[in-house]
Amino acid sequence: MKLVIAVVQDKDSSRLSNALIKEGFRATKLASTGGFLRAGNTTFMIGIEDDRVQEVMVVIKANCKVREQLVTPVSPMGGTTDSYIPFPVEVQVGGAAVFVMPVERFEHY
Ligand code: 2BA
Fold it and tell me: Coiled-coil segments, which residues (predicted)?
């Protein structure tokens, strides 16, 4: 068995939830926060048999979009803040950051 952990954008979370249910996957959603943007995102925990991991990946990929987001750096890289004018930079977020972990034991009572 594997545990698939997928960090996705909030905008994709209900679509992904619906798709996982439709395809017969069990999942738990956790509210999370990105360490870099400090914006809300959603983390899915999906427990799945080894031979269905690829199917889960396909569903995640099909339901999570890459988006551009503007970020304003808090302070300049190493320089003085005297003449610093914050300038927004664009970063590409998502579709999903996915981790696949082995599960030593799963009990369901
Ligand atoms: P955040 O940490 O808020 O990152 C949002 C986006 O900002 C990232 O998109 C990436 O494009 C950019 N970014 C992150 N750290 C950066 C850095 N040090 N320098 C420059 N740009 C940076 P994604 O890579 O698609 O990540 C989306 C979210 O997935 C992340 O939100 C984080 O919550 C999670 N994530 C991504 N990689 C992870 C990892 N290796 N471990 C744990 N969580 C991860």
Answer: none
